[in-house]
Description:
The chain has helices at residues 21-32, 40-53, 60-69, 99-109, 112-126, 138-142, 156-169, 176-192, 214-226; strands at 10-14, 35-38, 72-76, 83-87, 90-91, 131-135, 148-153, 205-208. It is α/β, with parallel strands linked by helices. Helix 1 crosses helix 9, helix 2 packs across helix 4 (99-109) and helix 3 packs parallel to helix 5. It has a five-stranded parallel beta sheet. The chain has a three-stranded antiparallel beta sheet with strand order 3-4-5, covered by helices on one side. 48% of the residues lie in helices and 15% in strands. It has a single domain (10-223), classed as 3-Layer(aba) Sandwich (Rossmann fold).
Amino acid sequence: MASRKRRGKVIAIDGPAGVGKSTIGTLVAKELGYRFINTGEMYRALTWKALEAGVDTRDAAALTRLANTVSWDFKTNEDGVIIRTVIDGEPVTTQIREERVGMNSSLVAGVPGVRKKLRALQRGLGDEGAIVMEGRDITTVVFPDADLKVYLDASIDERARRRTKQLRASGKKADPVRIKESIVQRDMQDLQRRINPLRQAEDAVVIDSTTLTMQEVAGRILELVRGGGSAGR
Length: 233
């Protein structure tokens, strides 16, 4: 990828489901005055649109056409930090949390044409820098030239515990056993995906957050950024 002058750094964060990428990424972005985007929300947005439009989520050609014909827009929250996806003029922050979206999003995210389109959108969002971007292939595919690459990890048990706590805090029922099973299944899907599977970039800084708080992990990343450290150092 050709490099260009950026107004700030690109901080790329990858890692499996439930490891805290969004929470940590938001903390880092707020501290630096950067923008933050969870790229998974883009795939969920397209999944919601496909379901609303009656598009078969197993039809790769139809999903690719949809990705290329809908209108994509991205708006930051009032704090100017978190970037939200707007599709065909409609903010979809609430809709993408629907169970039917979660059940179909992996199918949509596995379509090569969809990933190609969204990768271009993601690169456009981060081209000027001053952004923290998290996902599954940000350090390896979207921004292999990121100023800092971080691979976040944590044990499956800890990730399940965090997810359970998060759901219960929001007033939802949460079965720890089912949540753990869901995380294991998601890991398998991400690791075995034919197109852009989850993997650790060779020059990424690996942080295991199993015994750390989100604030502690964010602090470590900020130390790397402010210390001029780059991935691999």
